[in-house]
Amino acid sequence: MDGTPRSVAQKIIARAAGMASVEVGDYVTVAPDYVACQELFWPGHKRNLERIGVDRIPRPDKAIMVIDHSTSAAMGSPHHETHRTLRDWCASQGIETFFGPGNGLRHLVLTERGFARPGTLIFSDEGNIASIGALGALNLPISTEVIVALIQDGTWIAVPPSARITLTGRMGFGVGARDVIQTILRDQTTNSALLQACVEFAGAGVATLSIDERETILASLFHSGAYTGVMPVDDAVIAYVEARAQGRPWQVVEADPGVPYIADLTYDLSAIAPMVTLPPDLHAAVPVGDVAGQRIDQATIGSCSGGRMEDMRLAAGLLRGRRVAPHVTLYITPGSRNVYAAAAREGLLEVFAEAGATVLAPGCTTCWGYQGVLNDNEVLISTQQFNYAGRNGARSARVHLAGAAVVAASAIEGRIADPRPMMAEGVA
Amino acid sequence: MSPRGRAWVFGDDVSGDDGIIEFAIIRDSFGKEHDEAALRAMCFRRLRPEFPAEVRPGDIIVGGRNFAHHNHVEVSVAIRASGIAVVVVESCDAGFLRRALNAGLPVMICPGIQGAVRDGEVIGADPETGVVTLADGGTLRSKPFSPRMVEIWRAGGVIPLLEREFAQRRAQQAREEATR
Description:
- The complex is a heterodimer.
- Chain A starts with 7 loop residues before the first helix and ends with a helix.
- In chain A, helix 6 packs parallel to helix 7 and helix 9 runs parallel beside helix 12.
- Chain A is of the alpha/beta class.
- Chain A is built from 13 helices and 18 strands.
- In chain A, the strands form five sheets. Chain A has a five-stranded parallel sheet with strand order 4-3-2-5-6, with helices on both faces.
- Chain B is globular.
- By secondary structure, chain B is an alpha/beta fold.
- In chain B, 36% of the residues lie in helices and 16% in strands.
């Protein structure tokens, strides 16, 4: 073209806008490949659809409608009505990609079922769906406006600037992807270095990470103020996508050399240790040793930042042959029906049950306090997304964030614990 | 008519959910209509207790870096319901810009605005041209809104705009059927 280097985000957005190129900060209208929508805001969406008088959305094939926040509509909750009206609306629109309760999180529905593919542009309602960037797909979170993108088959966006994080080395023993992103958030949140940016991950360290691990890093990236993120598409991604794309098209998009990144950072994966993020701030990560010994009441493993197969395996590795401490409740939520089935095939559900853990149906469950509600002054350690006061019930309850290994080890000890000694012992 | 009004000046890293409003108080409202009176009553009161009583229709908010970070849409609704005509910030996350505009509140990202306006000064800010006119007559430039964004702003939000467009479309179809 004109020789100006373009970022991954610029290229994907230009294609979706039907333009040769777009500049950072431009306001352009784009047609998405998909729009992913959860049920929690559905009553408001439905009111708006009726107010506008929308009979048919133009592209029902682009709507990925998922009930993930209110997996089971419990007695006393208003969500059973939402389940009914969303299901009925999807049927009336001819939307075949409706995923009812128990199918799992939008994040995993998008990746496991071949919707998120390299180069695709997906509007969603949440920044944590940047996890699909592990497959080279671009998540653009537009919050409650997702319904507008469905009504018009598109909406306006501001072309984001890009930043780069180069990963080197390889994670050490007992360290997980969650520790990596908690370390990045510790360093890069209060300085606004990544504000508004699409973060492109790069470097030889990426290839040492599984796709689950890449998704976990991207899922919490938005806490830094970043808009979205992508990882390079390597052979592992191509094999993953080819097995799921069902013939749908995709195109690998790479940044040109010389893109002016607003931040250009490097992290050595081998220098990262198991971390715990202290309440109530998302950037308050400390090495697990600093807080080890803190008594806990509840431990939870699940959510878009900790419910993948890799997390199930990490938890089972520690729980096999061990028991959850008597004063602790441990909830484990597989992120999707596929993860649930895979965990069953590998015998992990048996490990969880025998260890005294409760396995919940795939969905957001404990992450937003829908299940596992905390009382005053109770202490939680969790793989969930947020740790602000009141996230899981009582405002005086304290929420610590960590990876699945730290959470499982802590559940066994009854106190926040470094998982490495237990992992080195192997099966108890 | 481009907005011109009295500026309320705020600093850097003002939280949306836990600063401009108090989201913890209204977090049970998922799926319900916005309680605009309650949102107006809490708007900016933590930072400027006099704001809810003294804000006037047409006033302008000037914010620093990372303005309104961590914001649900209720933050935008609270500011708009307070009568604010436009928000001009040094920087903010992309989500705030779009949530606000869709709720009828234009946000202009205008590098240089920080330190250029004193509280209470009268300034102009036009999302359509991107021009911010300071009290001394000097100007700063922001990216102009796209034509579609201007339409959303003028209509008071994306839902009122779509409501009008769909009504026009239905009327057009009815006319065509009548003349067939």
